[in-house]
């Protein structure tokens, strides 16, 4: 039997094309997806990577072979696929490898209403069937083959997002957007059309070879062009999207990065104004400013593990109106609990455009602490290195520990989290404190132990 464990990850399928997977395997995945979800109809979309149209069509054929009618929405962002799944009430599959290099591709799958499919919610069963059928062939279906129908949902997606944020009173703004040759170049012009914005586009040409820079704004080197263009044009704000445009990052009028935790706190405050007393989800490496601001505005903060499946599960369980991760994934109850960077960007533009100050002053109120950013260390033994760090801080006055996700060590005005990567021999360190000197001291102490 084939072993697909190298490409079927915790939350999606991802691997090198055609070395690790190809169109025949995509067709088998489509058949397995339709079988496991018991779908009579599904929706499929894809990004701008060279391999995406062929893989997407093969998957559609596979799903149709099991009797599912397939709505193909073609080029789209991942959150546009989630919109289609939610609005149409259909399981969905998005062909993208997000920010990975051009030779990669993948599948993000969901049930009807954009409910996530991960290892514990169907992906293991899909993998098992695909492994079996890659050896035996897909068996004949008792159901007649389904149909393949093309449908463009971009205008409906844009209209729906705009209906969720009041942008009617914003002042004129100059906005630089770096799409990184990804799907933001497809969605941004339609979503922002008609607003009083002087839009300065960077790399809107759809090109899955990413000729200018990686479509991964989490890496500071990929923000350099955006920062320079904001300063050059005197723009009010800069926005950067990743390859499949489900994450959005911002830089202020000086070209300085805006913390995703600050964006989380800002959007949380706006959502609480509409939903007094509501629950807000935040993962454990977001700034302490997030739960503080949520509490100050009458909301209930709930802390969860890192990862979209945990956020989405907690969103549903707690009836939360909004959730944010420090990786710039933003989740909305009004968007089927799914993540959409575009909706977060609209909130940021609405907040900026309804007051006169610069974005640096706007977000300063939500950015109360100094932070290290995420620092990766390659280690031989993740558990042993983590235990050594815990031992070093055990017995210190006022120090607490928790193991919700890795190890979090906290004091009165500082904390750090050390958590293992699920896929690489890495430990990821995040440090936050009241001042930069304390951050540097803690960072150096922990790294001294981890890298010893």
How would you summarize this macromolecular structure in one to three sentences?
The chain has 452 residues and is α/β, with parallel strands linked by helices. It is 37% helix and 22% strand.
Account of the 3D structure:
The structure is a single chain. This protein is an alpha/beta fold and 452 residues long. The chain has helices at residues 23-37, 52-65, 78-88, 119-136, 154-163, 184-192, 224-233, 260-274, 289-296, 308-318, 341-353, 359-364, 382-393, 436-450; strands at 13-16, 41-46, 69-75, 92-95, 104-111, 115-116, 148-150, 173-178, 197-202, 237-241, 248-251, 257-258, 279-283, 300-304, 322-324, 330-332, 370-371, 375-378, 400-402, 407-410, 414-420, 426-433. It has 4 domains: 13-152, Alpha-D-Glucose-1,6-Bisphosphate, subunit A, domain 3 (Alpha-D-Glucose-1,6-Bisphosphate, Chain A, domain 3), CATH 3.40.120.10; 156-254, Alpha-D-Glucose-1,6-Bisphosphate, subunit A, domain 3 (Alpha-D-Glucose-1,6-Bisphosphate, Chain A, domain 3, 3-Layer(aba) Sandwich), CATH 3.40.120.10; 260-364, Alpha-D-Glucose-1,6-Bisphosphate, Chain A, domain 3 (3-Layer(aba) Sandwich); 370-450, Alpha-D-phosphohexomutase, C-terminal domain (TATA-Binding Protein). Helix content is 37%, strand content 22%. A hairpin with a 3-residue loop joins β20 and β21. The longest helix is centred in the N-terminal third of the chain and has 18 residues, at 119-136.
Beta-strand percentage? 15-25%
The CATH class of the largest domain is: Alpha Beta
Chain-averaged pLDDT: 96
**CATH topology title of the largest domain:** Alpha-D-Glucose-1,6-Bisphosphate, Chain A, domain 3
> How many structural domains are formed by the residues?
4
Largest β sheet strand count, sense and barrel closure: 7 strands, mixed
Total number of β-strand segments? 22
In CATH, the architecture of the largest domain is 3-Layer(aba) Sandwich
Radius of gyration: 22 Å
Number of helices: 14
Helix content: 25-40%
At the fourth level of CATH, the homologous superfamily of the largest domain is Alpha-D-Glucose-1,6-Bisphosphate, subunit A, domain 3
Enumerate the spans where pLDDT stays under 50 for 5 or more consecutive residues.
none
N-to-C CA distance:
42 Å
Structural class: alpha/beta
The best one-word shape is: globular
């Amino acid at each position: 039997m084939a072993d697909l464990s190298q490409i079927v990850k915790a939350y999606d399928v991802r691997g090198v094309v055609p070395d690790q997977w190809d169109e025949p395997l995509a067709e088998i995945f489509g058949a397995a997806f339709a079988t496991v979800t018991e779908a009579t109809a599904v929706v499929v979309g894809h990004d701008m990577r060279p391999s995406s149209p062929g893989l997407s069509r093969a998957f559609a054929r596979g799903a149709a072979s099991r009797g599912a009618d397939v709505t193909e929405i073609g080029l789209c962002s991942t959150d546009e696929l989630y919109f289609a799944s939610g609005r149409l009430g259909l399981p969905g599959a998005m062909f993208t490898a997000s920010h990975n290099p051009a030779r990669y591709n993948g599948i993000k799958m969901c049930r009807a209403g954009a409910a996530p499919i991960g290892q514990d919610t169907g992906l293991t069963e899909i993998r098992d069937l695909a492994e079996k059928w890659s050896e035996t062939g897909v068996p004949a279906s008792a159901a007649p083959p389904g149909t393949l129908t093309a449908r463009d949902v971009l205008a409906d997606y844009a209209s729906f997002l705009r209906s969720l944020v009041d942008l009617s009173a914003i002042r004129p703004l100059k906005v630089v957007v770096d799409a990184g040759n990804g799907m933001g170049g497809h969605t941004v012009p339609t979503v922002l059309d008609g607003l009083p914005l002087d839009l300065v586009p960077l790399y809107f040409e759809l090109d899955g070879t990413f000729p200018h820079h990686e479509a991964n704004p989490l890496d500071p080197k990929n923000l350099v062009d955006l920062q320079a263009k904001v300063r050059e044009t005197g723009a009010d704000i800069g926005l950067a999207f990743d390859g499949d445009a489900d994450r959005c990052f911002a830089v202020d009028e000086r070209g300085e990065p805006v913390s995703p935790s600050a964006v989380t706190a800002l959007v949380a405050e706006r959502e609480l104004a509409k939903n007094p007393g509501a629950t807000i989800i935040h993962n454990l490496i977001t700034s302490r400013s997030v739960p503080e601001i949520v509490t100050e505005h009458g909301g209930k903060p709930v802390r969860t593990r890192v990862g979209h499946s945990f956020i989405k599960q907690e969103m549903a369980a707690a009836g939360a109106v909004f959730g944010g991760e420090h990786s710039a994934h933003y989740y909305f109850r009004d968007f089927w609990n799914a993540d959409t960077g575009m909706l977060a960007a609209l909130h940021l533009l609405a907040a900026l455009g309804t007051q006169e100050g610069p974005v640096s002053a706007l977000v300063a109120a939500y950015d109360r602490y100094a932070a290290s950013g995420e620092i990766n260390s390659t280690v031989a033994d993740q558990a042993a290195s983590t235990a050594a760090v815990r031992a070093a801080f055990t017995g210190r006055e006022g120090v607490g520990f928790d193991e919700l996700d890795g190890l979090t060590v906290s004091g009165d005005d500082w904390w750090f989290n050390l958590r293992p990567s699920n896929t690489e021999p890495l430990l990821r360190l995040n440090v936050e404190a009241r001042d930069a000197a304390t951050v540097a001291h803690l960072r150096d102490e922990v790294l001294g132990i981890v890298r010893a």
